[in-house]
Amino acid sequence: MGFDQFVTDRLDRLLGYATAITCDKHLAQDIVQNVLMRAQGKWERIGAMDAPYLYVKRMVTNDYLSWRHRKAAREIAVERAELARHAPSMADPADAHAEREAMRARIAVLPRKQRAALVLRFYEDCSDAEIAQVLGCAESTVRSQLSRALQTLRTHELARSATLGVHS
Amino acid sequence: MNDLIRQAIAAEAEERVDSRTVLANLHKAKNRKPMGLIFGVATLTVAAAAAAVIIPTTLKKTETAPLANAPAQEAQNVLLIGTDDERLTDALLFARFEADGSATMISLPRDVYAGSSGERFTGLFREDPRKLTAAVENLTGAKVDHYAAVQMSDFGRVATAVGGVEVCLANAVTDPRTGASFPAGKQVLSGDQVLPFLRQRMNLPHGDLDRVKRQQAFLASFAKKITKDNAMELFQQVSRSVEYDDGWDPLLFSARFQGPVQVRTSTLPVGEAVVRNGVHGFAPDPAQAKKFVEEQLSGKGTAETGCVN
Fold first, then answer.
1. Roughly what angle, to the nearest 10 degrees, separates helices A96-108 and A112-122?
2. Which of the four, A62, B107, B268, B277, has the lowest number of CB atoms within 10 Å?
3. Is B280 on the interface with A (CB under 8 A)?
4. Which NCBIfam families does the record match to this protein (chain B) (predicted)?
């Protein structure tokens, strides 16, 4: 597959993926642009792979998880945590939109690697093996990252339902 | 709960920017040399590396009586290395310090194939500093007298310690990503303004290339801010991570600095990116590289000064 064709087919999906893991569309754009420019330089090799998309996704993920974006990620997380603090208690429990937004805020404050694993599972529908490949870790690590993320989200979810129950 | 997670992530992904914007940027970038990309955010290490060399020496001066009869100084070539948390080289500067303390610095892109077995600069220091200095000598045709390496992550603290660095912008500019905005003209950056300034790439006419220029301008200006009064604090900020070769006598080296340090910066032209053994990098023409370095070091090259984008 040629580079241009790859970009045409996958750019939108890649932007969606990057936005979901970074929770910041501008940072996501920055990362995707940089990664694609780098990928273009070595497309001869990437294009010949079985799964170029998986490889490029790995580049995007690595870039985000690298120290380069540590500060940005922290700032985004702080911002989102602030938003999350205000949002849920005001919401009507019957409001599906509010419920989704509350979950979104909770995902945004997960540790970066856990969120990446979660997005790979629930947005990209990747298997444990594929996630391991993208994150560059063992499958057992993927499972522990995912289960920790789900545990955190579940705890919050229970706490939230309980709070809303009292109010309603 | 899984459905809820799925919906939440999809909603987050829905926020993505329009892919047409990204496509347009990619097309623009195609016509540029990819050098700026390689430098990326990391080039700001360069300034920290410069500080690593200059600071310990300035500090020594404050602790000893002024050297009444300073020995005659010879020009020295020092390799300034900025490393990431894993000791990979992210920024590499070949610096010639003249007898009067003024310096000429040439940025060497870290992805140049330069090792004896065709490795790129980036991994050589971690393997063995001597491999890196040998590779630089081989490429530039100039001798490396000493090296100093500093961890890039120390840079934030260093920048704060000098209490501000003056830069000049040709135009007022806003960074859509960080929300930082800078007016046109001369201004003094400090603390939290420094990183957005050094990192901005979007909204600039030449994108990454402008970012490299900004970083070089910052470096030149930063070096001028190092004084006896702030040297101690700067030294403390970087002392944990600075490494330099055993054969160096910083006290002797320091005698040359009699005032603010003048720095001229330039970047080694590296041509188009190439792929070797599946690795992306640069293979500048050896003869041209040597010629460029010689011209810069003899003061014939054009210095990159003035306001940046």
1. 130
2. B277
3. yes
4. lytR_cpsA_psr
